[in-house]
Design brief:
This protein is an alpha+beta fold. The protein has a single domain, classed as Mog1/PsbP, alpha/beta/alpha sandwich (Protein Transport Mog1p, Chain A, 3-Layer(aba) Sandwich), CATH 3.40.1000. Helix content is about 30%, strand content about 35%. It is built from four helices and ten strands; from the N terminus they run βββαββααββββαβ. The strands form two sheets. A seven-stranded antiparallel β-sheet has the order 3-4-5-9-8-7-6, sandwiched between helices. It has a three-stranded antiparallel β-sheet with strand order 1-2-10.
């Protein structure tokens, strides 16, 4: 199985132990590769890449254990930030060639189904809800996939993934939160970001 979009961030509830460096001031990032400018909200800390790789591995393992197949993760991390243990803000890209990988929206839809099924399998007592939509950001159409997870202990998590194909690169922005106010800060930061 070749999964072209790994939203492993969604699968890490309860498993996160990332080290980070404290960064209390807001920060503006310019990502030249995508002509993209985004303001990281205040009180978010960058996550150490080594620790993030460990976290990603746990998410990939969850997918592989659910489907008993190998995941081909080609994602390149752009940035990872967090505010508290379960509020994460992460962007990545990976290669996607329609000549090799097939029709983009079909693949995107299939990956979302795989993610949802992984959640169901890995968290059988949680209640899940999801919705797919399209949203404009800086005049560009992005695919959006929202998952809400209600845990038996009363914790509620919201994850939002945005994806778009830029030539032969699939860009993905992942927002995961248990605090509604912090989640809104991350969402607003991305919705107000600029792609030139």
């Amino acid at each position: 199985m070749r999964i072209l979009k790994i939203l492993c961030l969604f699968l890490l509830i309860g498993f996160q132990s990332c080290n980070s460096q404290t960064k209390s001031d807001p920060e503006t990032l310019k990502i030249e590769e995508f002509n993209w400018t985004i303001d990281i909200p205040e009180n978010f800390e960058p996550i150490n890449q080594k620790e993030w790789n460990k976290t990603l591995k746990k998410g990939i393992d969850a997918i592989e254990n659910t489907f008993d197949e190998k995941v081909d993760n080609q994602a390149v991390t752009i940035f990872t930030y967090k505010n508290g243990q379960f509020n994460n803000f992460e962007a990545n890209w990976q290669p996607f060639d329609v000549e090799i990988d097939g029709e983009y929206l079909e693949t995107y839809s299939e990956v979302n189904k795989i993610l949802y099924q992984t959640f169901e399998t890995q968290m059988p007592k949680a209640k899940l809800d999801s919705i797919s939509s399209t949203q404009k950001i800086s005049g560009l159409d992005f695919q959006r996939f929202d998952i809400t997870i209600d845990f038996p202990n009363g914790m509620k998590m919201k994850s939002i993934g945005f994806s778009r194909l830029f030539d032969k690169k699939e860009f993905t922005m992942n927002i995961s939160s248990v605090d509604e106010k912090i989640g809104k800060k991350m969402l607003d930061a991305f919705l107000n970001s600029k792609f030139e």
